[in-house]
Specification:
This protein is of the alpha/beta class. 46% of the residues lie in helices and 6% in strands. It has 3 domains: 4-127, 3-Layer(aba) Sandwich (Rossmann fold); 138-323, Serine Threonine Protein Phosphatase 5, Tetratricopeptide repeat (Alpha Horseshoe), CATH 1.25.40.80; 341-510, DNA Cyclobutane Dipyrimidine Photolyase, subunit A, domain 3, CATH 1.10.579. The protein has helices spanning 35-38, 45-64, 83-94, 107-119, 138-142, 151-161, 203-210, 231-249, 269-273, 279-292, 299-323, 351-363, 368-381, 386-396, 402-413, 430-436, 457-468, 470-473, 480-488, 491-506, and strands spanning 4-7, 27-32, 43-44, 68-72, 98-102, 123-127, 166-167, 170-171, 216-217. The chain binds flavin-adenine dinucleotide (FAD), ligand DLZ and iron/sulfur cluster (SF4).
Length: 511
């Protein structure tokens, strides 16, 4: 009789997968909490706990649906701590005749599992994870022969192909993209909605991790864990977003303000990335809400959100599979510096960075503009090595998985890919940060000062960045204006800015 073993990874908790449509006595699922996955980077404690909690809940669901499951807890005596070792052992012990797995999202795991299958004496096969709108190859095929991979053209093709917000082959309102309307600062006295958080008691898992020497970062309130750990909570979070946040999502998508960690963002990335819900469910729910309340929810709010999911998210995944493994070592500016120590502690006088880093340590979350225009912006200006940044972003965020982390970090944020993801680097001086946030008013540094003890570091580092990288960027038509300003600046002003930047870079740990 044939006996099949099916692997479910920690980010493959997709209860709608066709694997689970029937209960089959000849099939056993295998899931494992293992050191190769907890240790490939220093993860935030909430990320490890969150994934284990969600994995254990998923296992319970499978069992209650009468599926057979072999589950390795982290500290189980017989846990051999890697996919390969556990699978080999289980196949041998239980005499499985077939091994099956779902396409993993990470290049490293993809290679490992292919290698494992080649070494197995039994039959093996791989199936789709049935989560994304696109296949791994689809974006590469779409842009075949093109040097620039324009997100907007991919996004429009996705809208057409999946008939999202379309009126035959035209966008439903006649306009594809409403990004121009989505860049508002929060009004000074505006109190954003309190985020929906959950109250999961995860002390048992936390204690099990604490018994090991797994290195983690950040803090956790294990009795009241705020992130969704099952499908029901993920759907509740989506519902909360659709009913309470969507109406202001687009407007304040780029806004930042102290001590407000999520504003009108959905915080749905963790649930989606470990596949407790699908991107289709997410956009369908939001479109349904907009259709019900189109007098309250303006179209631009909805379009902005849909674009993030079927545009940016699928685009990043496509870039990942098209450009890996080369992408992981790209370093266009040849940046070599180490991350300042305060990236790990939040102890800096720079208010914007202090807030973004402290909330990341506290919640394992920062929203997009904090990641891009605060931490990412500073790191690029300071010439930090992209490897250091990948480790930081991959570790600290609960939603961080390499396919979407590295493309955002190395690509969008650090321009280390030389312009595959973005057409120009996302850098700014204090003026942009002040335009979009309420950080500068109460900062030790002064946003308007370029030199001197209290000068905002972003100002001199900004010009230093352009000066340092003129060879790589000078001919970029989207940046020409900045170089004109720089070239026209008085030589003594330029020298003062470069000296100030040099001082800050040499004393980066004291900022
Ligand atoms: P919302 O603002 O509510 O947006 C809705 C959804 O759109 C998100 O859940 C996400 O699935 C999708 N989305 C939005 N922007 C992007 C984007 N640029 N790329 C892919 N999907 C997007 N996202 C991750 O999921 N994992 C990561 O590891 C990750 N690392 C990042 C690193 C850097 C340096 C930057 C600049 C961005 C990164 N992002 C990453 C993208 C984005 O910041 C997060 O998806 C978003 O902040 C998640 O919070 P949210 O669910 O509240 O998003
Ligand atoms: C991120 C993570 C962690 C911390 N631990 C595990 C684990 O113990 N077992 C597991 O199956 N998956 C874990 N994951 C998620 C994996 O890293 C993820 O499935 C792969 O990187 C493939 O994307
Ligand atoms: Fe950040 Fe500079 Fe503003 Fe301070 S003054 S909050 S360092 S941008």
């Amino acid at each position: 009789m044939s006996k099949t073993l099916r692997l479910i990874l920690g980010d493959q908790l997709n209860s709608s997968h066709s694997w689970f449509k029937t209960v089959d006595d000849s099939v056993t699922y295998i899931m494992m909490e293992i050191r190769t996955e907890t240790d490939y980077v220093n993860h935030h404690i909430q990320k490890v706990v969150g994934i284990f909690a969600a994995m254990r809940n998923f296992k319970e669901q499978l069992l209650s649906d009468n599926h057979q499951v072999i589950y390795f807890n982290l500290n189980d005596e017989n846990n051999l701590q890697s996919f390969e070792a556990n699978i080999n052992k289980v196949i041998e012990t239980h005499k499985f005749t077939n091994f099956e797995y779902q396409l993993p999202d990470e290049y490293r795991v993809d290679l490992d599992l292919k290698k494992l299958c080649e070494s197995l004496a039994i039959e093996s096969s791989v199936v789709d994870s049935e989560h994304f709108f696109t296949t791994r190859k689809e974006l590469g095929d779409f842009f075949e022969g093109k040097k620039i991979y324009l997100m907007e053209s991919f996004y429009r093709a996705m809208r057409k192909k999946h008939n999202v917000l379309m009126d035959n082959d035209k966008p439903v309102t006649g306009q594809w993209n409403y990004d121009g309307e989505n860049r508002k600062k929060l009004p000074k006295n505006h109190k954003p909605i309190a985020p929906l958080v959950f109250d999961n008691d995860v002390t048992e898992i936390y204690n099990e991790i604490a018994k090991t020497n797994i290195k983690t970062i950040g803090t956790i309130d294990a009795k009241h864990f705020v992130w969704p750990t099952n499908r029901k909570q993920s759907l509740d979070l989506l519902d909360f977003f659709a009913t309470e946040c969507l109406q202001l999502f687009g407007s304040y998508q780029d806004a930042m303000t102290p001590n407000e960690w999520s504003l009108y963002h959905s915080r749905i990335s963790f649930s989606m990335n470990i596949k407790m819900i699908s991107p289709k469910e997410v956009i369908d729910r939001c479109i349904e809400e907009w259709q019900k309340r189109s007098n309250e929810i303006e179209y631009n709010q909805l379009e902005g959100f849909v674009r993030q999911i079927i545009g940016w998210r699928e685009y990043m995944r496509g870039i990942y599979w098209d450009k890996m493994p080369d992408f992981a070592s790209m370093n266009f500016f040849n940046n070599q510096e180490k991350l300042p120590e305060w990236f790990w502690t939040g102890k800096t006088k720079m208010n914007c960075l202090k807030d973004a880093i402290n909330q990341s340590l506290q919640y394992a979350y920062a929203h997009h503009i904090q990641r891009l225009m605060i931490t990412g912006n500073f790191a690029l200006l300071a010439g930090i090595h992209p490897d250091e940044l990948d480790n930081w972003y991959l570790g600290i965020y609960i939603d961080a998985f390499e396919w979407v982390e590295i493309t955002n970090t190395r690509g969008m944020s650090q321009f280390a890919d030389g312009g595959i993801v973005g057409t120009k680097p996302y850098v700014s001086s204090a003026s942009y940060i002040d335009k979009m946030s309420h950080y500068c008013g109460s900062c030790f540094y002064k946003k308007a000062l370029k030199t001197g003890e209290k000068a905002c570091p972003f100002n001199s580092l900004y010009w230093n960045f352009y000066d340092r990288n003129e060879e790589q960027l000078g001919k970029n038509p989207r940046i020409g204006m900045m170089y004109n300003v720089w070239r026209k600046m008085k030589p003594e002003d330029k020298t003062a800015l470069l000296q100030q930047a040099d001082y800050y870079l040499k004393n980066i740990n004291e900022l």
